[in-house]
Design goal:
Organism: Ramphastos sulfuratus
Pfam families: Perilipin
Keywords: Lipid droplet
Number of helices: 5
Order of helices and strands: HHHHH
Largest sheet: none
Subcellular location: Lipid droplet
Helix content: over 70%
Protein name: PLIN3 protein
Length: about 90
């Protein structure tokens, strides 16, 4: 997941979405309060899910490791065949 998130195009898209979200919240006070409440709820649910899933994740560690290895190999091939994924967005759009 971290390798995909660090791809230039993916990182740039995430940054643009984050910036648009923050800008929208800043421009609309009512929407900001709704978004803040939703964010708080998501954080609470995520914390509960992580703590509850920890025993399961520990048991699945070998399978997760194998899946990660295959995913990384697939990403290596994808990056090899599509070098555009590492180019700056401005270069891609031009």
């Amino acid at each position: 997941v971290s390798r995909v998130a660090n791809l230039t195009l993916v990182s740039s898209a995430c940054g643009a979405i984050s910036s648009a979200y923050a800008s929208t919240k800043d421009c609309h006070p009512y929407l900001k309060s709704v978004c803040d409440a939703a964010e708080k709820g998501v954080k609470t649910l995520t914390a509960a899910a992580v703590s509850g899933a920890q025993p399961l994740l520990s048991k699945l560690e070998p399978q997760i490791s194998t899946a990660n290895e295959y995913a990384c190999k697939g990403l290596d091939k994808l990056e090899e065949k599509l070098p555009i994924l590492q180019r700056p967005p401005e270069e891609v759009t031009s």
